[in-house]
Structure formats: C-alpha cells, structure tokens
Amino acid sequence: MTLRTFGISIQRVFQECDLELQQQRVLLYIIVFIGLGVVMLITMFFQSFLFSCSGERLTERLRSKAFNVMLRQDMKYFDDPENNTGALCTRLSTEAAAVQGVGVRIGTILENLSNLGVGIILSFVYGWTLALVVLGFVPCIIVAGFLQIYLMSRFASKDKETCENASKLAIEVIQNIRTVKQLTKENDFVNDYCCLLDVPYKSSMRRAHLFAFLFSFTNSIMFFVLAAVFSFGGYLVDQNRMTFEDVLLVYNCLVFGAEAVGQAMSIIPGYGKAISAAENLIGLFDSKVTIYDNDDDPSKTKSISDFHGELQLDNVSFAYPNRSDSLVLDNFSLTAKPGASGCGKSTIIQLILRFYDPHHGHLRVDQHDIRSLNLKWFRSQVGFVGQEPILFNMTIAENIAYGDTSRKISKSEIEQAATDANIHEFISNELPEKYDTKVGSKGHYSLSGGQKQRIAIARTLIRNPKILLLDEATSALDAKNEKDVQEALDRAQKHRTSITIAHRLSTIQDADFICFVHNGRVTESGTHSQLLGKRGLYYNLAKRS
C-alpha cells in the first residue's frame, strides 16, 4: 500500500509543469512520507511483536493440551499402531510448531489481499472500464491459490505418516543401541531409515512440477494483466474515453497489487502445512475416551470410605481392541478376599487397573462395580509391580515419593518403605549420595535389575495400597536378586489382597489360592497341595518344572 501511494504521489507531483508548485508538493509529500514512516515503524513493531508472542503462547498451549489429552486416553488408543511412540513424539514436537506460523501467515495473506483489493477499487475510481478487464483475471488467481492450499494440506497428511514411521524407527534404534551395535546392524538401520525418508522425497518430486506451475502461474499472471491494461488502455486513450494520466494511475495500482499477490502466494505452501497440522491436533482433541473420571459431574462416581480390597470377577469376557476376534478371557470368574493372595493372568491385572473394561460380565470391588468408582481414587488404592521396573530420571528419594503424590512424603517414610523393600541398607552403605543418587534412564548411577525392582517395590509401598498386583516381578532376575526381591514381596503382601502373575511354581506355591488359567478360563483352583492332589494340568506343570 505504501508503494502504491508513492507511485500515485510521484505521478501527481511531476505531472505539474510549474517548478515552484512542484517544489511545494515535494516538500508536502516528504513530510507526509516521514509521518507515514513513523506510523509504520510503530505499527509494524507491534504487529511483529504481538504475532510472535501470540504464536509462542499458542504453541505452548497446544503442546500442553496435546500432551494432556494423550495422557488421558485409554489404553486402546496406545494399542493402535498409528499411535506409536514415534508418531506421538512427532505430533508434540512438529505439529504445534507448524500451527504457530498460521497467525503470521494469515496476517500477511490478508494484508496482501487487502492491498490487491484496494488497488482494484482505486482502479475502478480512475478507470472502471479498464478495471473490468483486470477483474476477469482475479478468479484465476484465487483458484490457483486455493488449489495450492488444498494440495499442500492433502499431501502433508501423507508425508506426516511416513515421517512418523521414520521417527519410530529412530527412537527404537537409539533405545536399543547396545543390541544394534552388538549385532553390527548400524548400516542396515541407516538404510531402512533412508528408505523411509525416500517415500516423502519421491512424493515431493512427483508433485514438484505441479506446485512449480501453480507458483509460476500466480506470480506471472499479473504481468499478463498489465499487458492487457496497456493494450486496452491505449485503445481507451485513443478513443478519448480515458486520459493517459488515469491509465498510469491504474497501472501503478495494479503493479503493486501484483507484488502483493506474489508475496501472498509464496507463503501459501507453509499455510497448507499449518492447516494439516491443525486438523490433526483438532482430531486428537476431539478423540473419544471411554474410560475416564467424570470431572464435570463427580456425583456419578464414588469413593469407598471403608475400603477393604475385595476383588470379584464375575463371568468376565475380554478381547484386546486390536485383536477383537480373539478372546483372552472367556467367562472368567475369580474372587480375592482381603489378606489373601492368588495367581491369575496379566490381562486380569489390566482389567483390575481399569486400563480396559470387560466386554461381558462384571468386575466388582467390595461389592461395587468398578465402573461406578472414581478412577483416580481407585487406582490410588492399587499397587503394581511389573517385570520391568520403571524408574524416572530423578533421585531415589523422588522415585519412591512418586508412589503417592497426594501428600508430602517425609524422609522417614521413604526410608521405612525402602527398609520394607530390602533396599535401605544398599542405599545407605553403597551409594555415596544415598537417597539423593540420581537414577533412571539418564541417571548418574547404574543399578542392577534387582535393585531397581526393590526401589519400585518401595514406591508401591509408600502409598500403602489395599490391593497389590504382581506381574512376573521376579522372572527376569538371577537367583540372588530373586531371593531379595521375593522377601520384599512377601513382606509387602501381608494384610493386603494380592494377585500374582507367575510361571515359576516356586513363586506362587505359598499363595492362599491359586487359579490355573488355560485358554482364558479357570480350569483348576485351590492351594498348591490341593492342585497337586487333583493330578490335572497344574500337576503336569509341576512335574515338568
């Protein structure tokens, strides 16, 4: 708009033959342009500053909300192969940043299109007949621009999937770098990674000619418009229907309008990617969660004031969402009383933790259907120790205290939990920084599997759970570590409802009640001696072991 004003001003000043009048007008326009420069300095500063601030805030809010929505999804969302680790990390890192620039791009596009619009309006003022010729070309420019946006957003979705697969491969290789190096598979994985990157590259090459044509068309069409202006304008001047001055004014308006169109079209590809990223984020935000706490109406869920921890599975049938045609549990029934321990199956633990809901049957806790309970409250009453202990990148004390985030955990409680887990002596005597030793994936101190497992047990004990779930907690340990961990688990199971998943009979033979699960059904149940006396499947397993 500034350049258009400058062009009109030059024409107004120097068409005047009177030298003194020219000097007066030059002085006037100098003052006007200085004033416009000051106004432009202030307005453009605030435009850039505010767009940058709003863009950064938008990115922060989108990433925070996306991460929050991801963590609130139920487990079937993460079972979907499309929602693998690489895909989710890519969405968090790139899509929010892609959306950030949409505000600046929209502002630039609107600014340039408004310049074009003002130019066309001024063209009508100075010569409506000539301006009508220009309007015939405008639909072509608009169609080309929207075609670029459509194609870019469409192809961006396909490229995103390939890039997510490449990210997944990279994360998997880096996480297992020791195995990769031991197998000398570095070159193979590099080739696999390059093959994944070749897919979007070749796709881009195939469509490059189309984008090149659209880009060149939108940038060159205005020059064809100018050619039409000069040819038709000359005809109008020859017919005394316009003055040469008005033709030049129309020309000035259209020249700078052409530059505005070129600038707007040059940023359309980035705008298309931003639209695609925004659609993906909106799809994530709108995803339906089937297992959640109703925060809008807390009265629909409840907590049990005098909670004992009795578990009852009544004719439960279940299949994982990604294998819906294969029943893992088929009319499965089990009752676990407070203070008792029993053996079950890994899927049962996932149902008890309410990662999934059964397709048929009921799961009751203290005679209450688990669906009616407040989800956060119920999970806070359950302790879980799995086969692979997960420690966060923080100190041992912080890892143990993470077991109960509802209150501030004292140092004495942390040490007592560590003592009950058979790890306090090691921490106090072997580690120079004791409970302040940083562990986890990037920790300063490397712990053995048994040591990590006992810290995980201490973290479970700190919340004093009513129900304790143990899923192959000692299967990956050597004999010495297994003994230490098993002692800690035996101590932890006292006065709690405990369900143990195990394939070693030595782990579960002292349980109060054992269920032998075969093909999703309880085929035998009882104590160790009772099951041996039945001489059935459990007896055959005991003979083989």
Topology:
Layout: H1 2-14, H2 19-72, H3 75-79, H4 85-100, H5 102-135, H6 138-175, H7 177-182, H8 186-238, H9 244-266, H10 268-285, E1 311-318, E2 329-336, E3 341-343, H11 346-352, E4 360-365, E5 368-369, H12 375-380, E6 382-385, H13 396-401, H14 411-420, H15 424-430, H16 449-461, E7 467-471, H17 479-492, E8 497-501, H18 505-508, E9 513-518, E10 521-526, H19 528-534, H20 537-544
Parallel strand pairs: 3-8, 3-9, 6-7, 7-8
Antiparallel strand pairs: 1-2, 1-4, 4-5, 9-10
Family: Belongs to the ABC transporter superfamily. ABCB family. Multidrug resistance exporter (TC 3.A.1.201) subfamily.
Membrane topology: Multi-pass membrane protein
Transmembrane segments: 26-50, 125-151, 210-237
Structure report:
By secondary structure, the chain is α/β, with parallel strands linked by helices. The protein has two domains: 225 residues, ABC transporter transmembrane region fold; 234 residues, 3-Layer(aba) Sandwich (Rossmann fold), CATH 3.40.50. The protein is 63% helix and 10% strand. It is built from 20 helices and ten strands. It has a six-stranded mixed beta sheet with strand order 6-7-8-3-9-10. A four-stranded antiparallel beta sheet has the order 2-1-4-5, with helices on one face. Strand 7, helix 17 and strand 8 form a beta-alpha-beta unit. The longest helix has 54 residues.
